[in-house]
Amino acid sequence: MSRIFLLSPAHCDGQRAALVLNERAEFDLARRLRGSPGTSLGEIFSFPSGLYFRGTLAYAQAFPRPPSGLAGVYVITPTDGLELPHTAVRLDRLRRFAAVDIPLLPGRRDSHR
Fold first, then answer.
1. Rounded to two decimals, what is the model's pTM?
2. Which residue of 10, 67, 107, 112 shows the fewest CB atoms closer than 10 Å?
C-alpha cells in the first residue's frame, strides 16, 4: 500500500516566527533565510512551531511509501500549494506565508504556535 504524507503548515506570525522574520536577526537560520538560495521549507516551518512540525516531518521522512514517480512528503504552504520539504525559501516568501491566517481546527489546542 502506498503512503504519502501531507504536512500542515506552521503558523508564521507567532513570536518565534517574528524572530526569524526580523531583518536584523543575526542567528544562522535568519541569515540563511535572507541570503541565496535561502533555507529549506522544512527547516523554516520547524523553527516557529518547535517540536510539532519537526517531529511530524521526521516521522513522515522515515516512513513514506510513495507510488513510483512521486515524493513521499509534501508540505502544504499557506499561499503556494504543495511543496517538497527541501524546497528553498527566502524571506520574501516566508513573509507571504505569514500574511495568511491559519485557523486551528475546533477543539485543537494552540500548543504548537
1. 0.83
2. 107
